[in-house]
Structures are given as structure tokens and as C-alpha cells.
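Sample intake sheet
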Amino acid sequence: MKNFRSKKGLTLVECLVSIIILSIIMTSGLVIYVNSKAVLGMAMHKKMAIELINNKMEELKNSAYVTGLPSVQTTLVAVTLGGDVIGHEGIPGTMLITSSTIDFDSPPDGEDARQFDIVITWTEPGQNSTRTISATTYIAKP
């Protein structure tokens, strides 16, 4: 009689153990993918906020040379981070612009420059924390 037990091949237990190990590896890979996607989204929104701040600073600097120093005291503007990328609807946020006068002379003889503080605030989707980025620029009289 022939022996039908062959040493070639895998047993059922070996197959189950390999499937369990593979599922653990794939689950951890999926967790890493989801977390990296969230971090990438936060970095993209921060970059967009910096772009908005830079654009506003350039606008304020350019208007200073055309019409003199801008007279913004405090302005709150609704902004959208993103929305121009296909499949990305954008995140609502706010831009707060404040300004103050600076006089470098002693005794003071009036306004020599103006300080502008720009703060953008938004909330990341799926998170309860508010993100904020700010910048300050000084514009002298032309």
C-alpha cells in the first residue's frame, strides 16, 4: 500500500497562521496610511493659510505705495482653505487683520510706519482642535 502522506504542501494550521500574520501586517499598514493622509491634509491646509497670509501682505504693501498707508484697524474676513483642487471642497476659516501705528521719532511727530498682524484660524475636518497661523509685517510710509 502506498503512503499518501506527503511532506510537500501546507497544513490547515499553517495556512491560518499565515493569514493571521498577513492580516495584522495589512491592518497596521492601513492605520499608517489613514494617519499619513490626515497629516498630509493638515500640512496642505497650513500651506494654503500661509499663501493667503502672503497674498494679503503683498496686497497691503502694494496699496501702501499707491494710496499711502492702509488704514485698516481691525478686520475679520471669512476665508476658505482649498476648494480649488478637484475632490476637495475647502475648509471654512477666518482671517483677522489688525494694524497699529508706529512712530520711530523722538519726540513723536506722527505715523512713520504701520504694523499689520494677520491671523488665520480654521478647524481641521474630523478634529475638534482649532488651528491658527499668524504673521506680522511692517509697512513704512512711501
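Comment: Residues 12-140 form one domain. The two ends are 106 Å apart (CA to CA).
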